[in-house]
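<context>
A single protein, sequence plus fold
<sample>
Here is the protein in question:
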Amino acid sequence: MMKQILLAFFVVCSLNSTAQHHISIKSGVNLSNFNGGSVDDPDQKFRIGLGETIEYNFFFNDNILLQTGLSYNQRGYASVFNFTDENGVTIGGGNHHTNYDYLGITALIGFQSSGKIKVGMSMGALQSVLLSAKSKTPFPESYRNVLPQDELKGNVWVVELQEPFSRTDFGLQIGFDVGFELNKRMDLFYEISYYQSLTSFNDSPFYSKDRQLRHYSLFMGLGIRFELGNELKASE
């Protein structure tokens, strides 16, 4: 599906010689979780991670644009994990993190107002590939000889989760931004966007196959947008 979306994007871009071309770079924070619940902690909390994107913006006119870009997103969830002794008494533990890091390609359509203060919105698809999946749990010293030695990093129990989970993720993204003109070719903007997976990443034997686990996240960040101009029009 993503191949067809990108093919259509580049065909449209190639047919319009009067469009404007922009590059934007943005960085911020992802607050992420997932639908479907956890076996051990049904009330899991949001993970705070990074979101980084570089985008090419193709403006048909002053207001309508297409976007495609390369993004890096940290997703997952956080919870509290406790270790107990043989009597069930808690003897240690702490904040448990399950982290999924993705590299993705976006294909979005958007609108942006004109003027020195620009208000915009965009929506479209994000196709991602899993780079890394790990759980990280602090453990008490009394468990050091019980846990797998090759999974211990200092006082943290680190488990690689990449194999049990799907290697790809596909979803929809909708965003809003406010930009401020720095000069005629550069804008500073603030963006907030929401992402929801459409595909389940549940390939894990720890979850029932009928449990559809889907990421969702809220991104908040700052970016710089550069106008490249219209090379085709200038050469005519």
